[in-house]
Write a structure and sequence with these properties.
23 helices, two-stranded parallel ribbon, 2 domains, mainly alpha, three-stranded mixed sheet, 5 strands, about 65% helix, about 550 residues
């Protein structure tokens, strides 16, 4: 085969990654923006803030469309791995174009600007640097850039739906506290001269933006028309299933989980409802609950489990830092979440965030979140670390293939982490019936989210019915309503968990007999976060290559 198609696809990929790293260095270096690749080149621009003026966005969109047109003209059909790269890039480009050109979230979502501001400063402060002077210099540069970023927000933001407006004001307050923390850090470490002025100016710019958000006020969610879910999952995620199929998959998971829940309830205590059994579970009892100790011990145990299952390659692994959720992320992250490094730089931290502190308001929602964080610690640890996000990301960041090393897919990413939770029961790591009931409760929750995501798009759910479904899996009514509102503004993401896990189980049923449990999982993870029909195609080609290779070896031995 000629090297030309491969070199052309690689060249286009490199142009794409370089373009985005320069245009959106913070977003490409962060895992908060799933419509963008994790471009490792972005680590060269820790002193620069993303440009979100309308002209800058239009220029980036135009350049990506040109690259996509060129890529569509290429073909890698003679090399299945190359063709997978091409299709993966096309889907990733579609995701960016949907977000920036079609949904135009930068016109109605203030969280984009606030996340860029805070994450950008955090990266400048904490990502590896040659020395303290470099770290302080790039932090000062990013702080100085926030005034321009917030001015772009002021110019761009039009209608802000109520959920985004409330979340924006909450994050603005967290951002203010974060800037105060930086000032205290500067005073304590003797860096007031370098960081004091840019930090105060950033704080003033943030105050102006916060006041502007209050003036704009909340709008109805109907003022923003999101992209159709069916179109999103097909174009961005590369899913070949119809929305009706996805809804049916969620229905089956819901029914199967209810059946399993009833079986567990009968085994544990048939006199109590499953919700009562769930609420009775208090792991790690002691005089004082230490969530960090509880989670730390479980992460170490899960790491050993993955070694025993031969899922973990130690040279690709790195320590997970268990830490409190950063101040600026408290209102936008769940109580337990993972943040992966951008590069394979050994000094870059992989962080598992936990929100263990009690907020001053200490509402019923806060209490329920903390209780879930406690009861579900084993499965949250598995989802976020081993064998979930951390394991997957560790392998992805070490891939030789530059496309699959830098492109993530929400469908694969969340599907794998949800599937990873099931390994705990399958492997015998979790055996206790009450803990299995906690797992079953989480499966009901995932199925509910998929049903709501697909069901709202298919007009089979009202907002009230969707909220009631979440209440049935142990959410407070106010929290359930708020979740459904967010689902409506970010369609397609909630179905990734159940659908992704279903697709992995489907692949396992088809290909585990040919490769074995261990090799199937390693091949799946080392193939990158690709659409599942392409993963199946890849397995078929690898199985055929193995069959041909074995036949040739047998023939050679016969001739000898």
């Amino acid at each position: 085969m000629s090297d030309q198609p491969k070199s052309q696809i690689s060249r286009i990929a490199q142009e794409y990654f370089s373009l985005l790293a320069r245009a959106f260095p913070v977003m490409c270096a962060s895992d908060e923006f799933h419509f963008l690749p994790r471009v490792q080149e972005a680590s060269q621009w820790f002193d620069q803030i993303d440009q979100l003026s309308q002209d800058a966005i239009a220029a980036a969109v135009g350049a990506v469309r040109d690259l996509q047109t060129r890529l569509k003209k290429q073909s890698g059909e003679k090399d299945f791995e190359e063709e997978i790269d091409r299709q993966l890039l096309l889907h990733n480009m579609d995701g960016l174009l949907i977000e920036l050109a079609e949904i135009q979230s930068w016109r109605h979502n203030p969280l984009i600007y606030l996340k860029i501001a805070c994450i950008g400063v955090d990266h400048a402060l904490n990502k590896p640097a040659n020395d303290a002077k470099e770290g302080l210099g790039r932090t000062a540069e990013r702080l100085a850039g926030l005034k321009g970023l917030f001015a772009q927000a002021d110019e761009n933001l039009e209608n802000i739906p109520g959920p985004y407006h409330r979340a924006g004001l909450a994050m603005a307050e967290d951002a203010r506290e974060y800037l105060e923390e930086i000032l205290r850090y500067a005073d304590r470490e003797g860096f007031r001269k370098q960081l004091g002025l840019p930090c105060r100016e950033a704080r003033e710019a943030l105050a102006v933006l916060t006041e502007r958000l209050r003036q704009i006020g909340p709008a109805s969610t109907e003022t923003v028309k999101p992209v159709a879910v069916a179109e999103l999952v097909q174009r961005h995620f590369g899913c070949t299933r119809s929305l009706d199929e996805i809804y049916a998959i969620a229905q089956d998971e819901w029914q199967d989980s209810q059946t399993e829940m009833e079986r567990l309830r009968q085994r544990i205590n048939p006199k109590l409802e499953w919700q009562q059994l769930y609420e009775s579970y208090q792991p790690g009892r002691g005089e004082e609950l230490d969530l960090f100790q509880l989670y730390g011990a479980e992460i170490a145990s899960l790491r050993d489990l993955c070694r025993g299952l031969h899922l973990l390659d130690d040279h690709q692994d790195q320590e997970v830092t268990l830490t409190e959720t950063p101040t600026y992320l408290r209102s936008v992250r769940s109580a337990a979440s993972y943040s992966t490094p951008l590069t394979t730089e050994p000094h870059e931290q992989a962080c598992f965030y936990i929100t263990s502190t009690i907020s001053p308001s200490n509402t019923q929602v806060d209490t329920l979140r903390r209780q879930r964080l406690h009861r579900e610690y084993r499965f949250l640890s598995a989802h976020e670390t081993y064998p979930g996000h951390h394991l997957l990301d560790s392998i992805r960041r070490h891939l030789d293939n530059p496309v699959r090393r830098q492109v993530e897919s929400p469908l694969f990413y969340e599907g794998w982490a949800y599937y990873a939770e099931s390994i705990l029961g399958e492997s015998g790591h979790v055996r206790d019936s009450l803990e299995l009931l906690v797992d079953c409760k989480r499966r009901l929750w995932r199925a509910a989210r998929c049903l709501i995501d697909a069901g709202l798009a298919l007009h089979r759910f009202t907002t009230e019915a969707a909220a009631s479904l979440l209440v049935s899996v142990n959410f407070a009514r106010d929290e359930a309503i708020a979740q459904v509102e967010r689902f409506q503004l970010n369609p397609g993401y909630q179905l990734c968990y159940s659908l992704g896990k279903y697709e992995i189980l489907n692949l396992r049923q088809r290909f585990k007999p040919k490769f074995g449990w261990q090799r199937f999982h390693r091949l799946l993870l080392e193939g990158g976060e690709i659409p599942f029909h392409l993963a199946a195609w890849r397995f078929e080609n690898l199985a055929e290559d193995a069959r041909v290779g074995k036949a040739l070896q047998t023939s050679s031995e016969d001739q000898e």
